[in-house]
Design a protein that fits this description.
Blueprint: H1 19-26, H2 31-35, E1 37-38, H3 43-51, E2 54-60, E3 66-72, E4 79-80, E5 86-89, H4 98-105, E6 108-114, E7 121-131, H5 134-137, E8 150-153, E9 162-163, H6 168-173, H7 187-190
Antiparallel strand pairs: 1-9, 2-3, 2-6, 4-5, 5-8, 6-7, 7-8
């Protein structure tokens, strides 16, 4: 059971409360890191997206309550219409619609694309909408099923600064192949 002090706002006496303090603690990014931020999806970003079978989409409702949801299908399931617009098919799922409801209240989303076995990810931030244009959705059909609705960063501000693939994080999280953590989880978690 978690200690109640962790839920209190004043649980930590030495909190960092300004960017100035944060920069003093961690410093500034180098030139190479600053150049990784793109204003549109270049050919390398679009190629990464076309090869990615998995992404995480983060959203928040009007009150700021956050959610991160997985999306996945065969590589290429996310369609890049151009350098500023992506379309993510909304496949049948649990019908909670957390992400879709959040987008209706607050269109800002963050996407994290991954390719299994590759030590890089691609982050894309932007504004999303939910739409059901039949001509566009027909292009997202999979396994004989036409997509009924879709989401994705879209419009002139569809893609905001895009950090290029971040290589270090997945490498740090990589676990030895022989280790299987699923057996250490409570029984119900293994079946979610």
């Amino acid at each position: 059971m978690m200690d109640a002090s962790w839920t209190r706002q004043d649980a930590f006496a030495a909190r960092v409360t300004s960017e100035e303090d944060l920069r003093a603690l961690l410093g500034w990014p180098g030139e190479l890191v600053r150049r990784k931020v793109l204003l549109a999806l270049d050919e390398h970003c679009r190629a990464f997206i076309a090869r990615s079978p998995f992404l995480l989409i983060s959203s928040a409702d009007a009150a700021g309550v956050c959610d991160v949801s997985p999306r996945g299908d065969a590589p290429g399931f996310v369609l890049a219409l151009d350098e500023t617009r992506l379309i993510i098919p909304e496949r049948p799922g649990n019908r909670r619609m957390d992400t879709l409801r959040n987008i209706l209240q607050n269109p800002r989303v963050g996407l994290l694309f991954a390719i299994p076995g590759m030590g890089e990810t691609l982050r894309v931030n932007g504004r999303a909408c939910v739409f059901r244009d039949p001509d566009v959705l027909a292009r997202l059909a999979a396994r004989g099923r036409v997509c009924e609705k879709s989401t994705g960063p879209t419009g002139s501000a569809g893609v905001s600064p895009v950090p290029a693939p971040a290589a270090r994080t997945p490498g740090r999280a990589r676990r030895p192949r022989s280790q299987d953590f699923s057996q250490t989880l409570p029984r119900g978690v293994r079946h979610l």
